[in-house]
Amino acid sequence: MSEELLVTARSNALIDPSLHIWTWEVAMYLFMGGLTAGIMIIAALMTVRDKDQVAPYAATRLALLAPIVLSLGMTTLFLDLEHKLFVYRFYTSFQITSPMSWGAWILIVVYPISILQILSTLRIGYPSLASFVDRVTIGQLVTDWCERYRREIAFAVIPFAVALGIYTGILLSAFGARPFWNSGVLGLLFLVSGMSTAAALVVLLARQKSEKEMFTGLDLVLIFAEIALVALSLISLASGSGQHIEALQSVMGGSYTLEFWVLFVGIGLLIPAVLEILEISGVSKSLAMLAPVLVLIGGYALRQVVLDAGQESTWTNYSTQYNSELLQRLPQSD
Amino acid sequence: MTRYAMVIDTKTCIGCGDCVVACKTENKVPDGLNRDWVVEATRGTYPDLTTEFRSERCNHCSNATCVTLCPTGASHHWNDTNIVLVDADKCTGCKACIAACPYDARLVMHPDGYIDKCTFCHHRVEKGLDPACVSSCPTRCMHFGSLDDPHSEVSRLLKSREYKVLVPETGNEPNVYYLI
What we know:
The structure holds two protein chains of two kinds.
Chain A: E1 2-6, H1 24-48, H2 56-61, H3 65-80, H4 99-125, H5 127-134, H6 137-148, H7 150-173, H8 186-205, H9 209-238, H10 242-248, H11 257-280, H12 290-312, E2 319-320
Parallel strand pairs in A: 1-2
Helix pairs in contact in A: 1-3, 1-7, 1-8, 1-12, 4-5, 4-6, 4-7, 7-8, 8-9, 8-12, 9-11, 11-12
Chain B: E1 4-9, H1 18-27, E2 37-45, E3 48-56, H2 65-69, E4 75-77, E5 84-86, H3 96-100, E6 107-108, E7 115-116, H4 122-125, H5 132-136, E8 142-146, H6 153-160, E9 163-164, E10 176-179
Parallel strand pairs in B: 1-10
Antiparallel strand pairs in B: 1-8, 2-3, 4-5, 6-7, 9-10
């Protein structure tokens, strides 16, 4: 037997009895950050490959959602901060070893680039909105400029959007103290998941049949890539050191098994993959709208379950018999 | 980098918890929060049991992952020593350092929200005093000093006694030593 017991009180909020510092706010940000990256990459690729006719929604209208989704995500991220008034401190230094610092600066660069991307197709995609922008001379000039360099802007968008999509995974994988996150595949997994959720969003919002079909096909490819990456990350944990093997248990019979296999792998990956295959092969179209909704749910489930399982994984394991409720029984002094 | 270390003799520690009380008093740590704690580790099968008491806190790691992962530079090594401090004015409360610490030695200061931790009582160390926990230990099982000085008490103890650090596999190079 080996038992490590805390014999003095330690019930630090959010840390004891087990780490739970990050909850839905951070999971939602990770999801929305990935979705934004996917939106920007897909919109840019459609421009680069001249898909205005086949995929008008993705090529000319999708980009507008990027700053909206990203702002929602940053709002939930802000809600998570414990020392909110000091949020500006992210922008008074750059810490080269901290992926979170990289992320803060990537976000600052992504916003203006996203605006340029939107303006480059605004007149085609949103004529009424564009007429508002055109009323101001500077707006008209900038829009003209963006239209002229639409292709160049699209090329410039891709590296920054990829950085946005991948950094959240690298951020978590950099925590050596949390073995479940400590896998190099995580960055790529989050990027592919972000692109998959964005493709699903296009299927939901596009009107043209050819576009829906094209993105259903693309999403299916991305889902297969995601399944491969999930398998790789599980294999990397299973073949790691004792701490990694122990961390893997949280999704292999431990506390997050159901969320991981049912909500993420089942509802988020396998069922939409089957539905999309049925749709592409023409067997069944009745559930066409269900697949993209499930993909979006799966994208969030991935972030939530990875976040939770990672916080559960640890190098230290203390039992504690401290019960903070007993403190209430002490006579209160004034 | 000046390396300060704490050396704790598990053979003479009785787990009284005075170090915990001394820390709370010296550093005015609010109710319900703790910068240090005592662990009772029991091994074996009855009747062949061994017990070890360990007073634990931030390990003031030489390779501190909380410092490398802090996005704002709030977590830093103090005055080119291994003592890890948090600058509350730079801290956003993002909690990356809490996730980064393999020893779960950090806490969220309530109600303010910045991140707090053991400071090795650097305000006392500056004056040549021992940290509050060390100076209050009734069995004198705790020792503090510089590892750069080969004649310091901590250096001599580590030369003459068997010791361990907690989970060295993390690669963080912790500086709280336990004599075993």
